[in-house]
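Could you please consider the sequence and fold following this short note?
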Amino acid sequence: METEGDRLKADLIDPATGRLLLSEGAPITPLVTQRIKSLGLDPETLEPLPATTLLSPETAPAPERPIPPTRTSALNRLLFWIAMDMPLDDWDGLVHWVEEAIGELDPFDASVAHGDRVPGDHERTHPVNVMLLSVRMAQAMGFPATVVREVAIGALLHDLGKLQVEPEIRFRPGGLSPEQMRRMREHPRLGLELLRVWGLMDRVSPLVLDAVGGHHERVDGRGYPAGLAGAMVPEVAGIVAIAEAYDSLVSDCLYRRRFPPGFAYQLIRRGTGSRFAPHLVKAFERAIWPYPPHSQVRLADGTIAKVVPKEVSSPLQPWVQLPNQQILLATGRFAIVDAHVARSAERFPIRIPASITVNGLDLFRSETLDLSQTGARLLDPHRRVNPATDVEILLKPPHGTPTPIEGRVVWIKPLEHGGMPFGVRLAPSSALSQADLKRLWKPQRR
């Protein structure tokens, strides 16, 4: 089989449609190899595989992820597409999902973009959230629908090149070495290369290419990869840069916890004229509110208040509803500390043995630190698990029936001495009921 770095020795033709997919000389990447196999072709010869090879249960690869539900929103379809490592073989379908996702947004309320963001692990939701925030900014700037769509596609694909960055760099929880940082900074170029590899350069608009290749440029010329400055930075790249920065700041990442929305909002403002073009920051301020109407906030005295949809001079100081009165935070009597997100379920301090399996391989024995209906914290004594890995967990209570669950690793925290705690977001099919949690916890009570 040809390896990454080799090049196609002949044109790659889709046997079903006769359409040219890749031209002779195109580089072979893991995604290209996967695509060749999906067409029923031998990666070495590009000839059709024997029927017995295609149908043999012994050789057919097991599906890595479940089939997406047939009834789902466009955003859920896009999230599933991201989980499948963003294949680009159905460009028309992808564009259709983006158009549907834009249509699902409320066109009459562009002030609640922060509330549009999709919750979940940052690695999976970041492309969609950057798309949603970029759409809000483009709409606030009065762009026509066709341009808004191209901005959305570019934002969705902005980090496409990171799929080509080695996992040990991409998912490293700590800081990167200078060499690793140089490799990470290649992802804009790698994203453009992937679009070329998939044969899409004649179908992708210049706006999309600007977003993929230029979202790390800065107006002061200190960005990368080209070091563009001032008006040379494409406008769509600047929009995506702001959306990408804001979503990263308000999200839990591998290397730090999230910042409060108000603080992240102010950091974007401080980047005016250095990182971001002033007119784009103005569009950000019009389109994205850190504390949207009807959301909850935590005040400095610990009170949880609800944001009231009233006109204000500053989105950082909205009207809020207290138990007996409405107040305008601009008066200075109260201050917001952070957004308040209610827990979806009580967390139980359950410590029981568990075995961890990845891709059918028994990886290691573990122990839970706590469990909720939607998540689990466990201990990896050998530091073997990686972020964004799908895992199967078998809970083994001392007294009771073993309980299988599955989910995705969303964070890891290596300790200086000893093992490594890690968090798993449970798949919907593995959600634990309150009765399950109480059954697992009951034998441990004293």
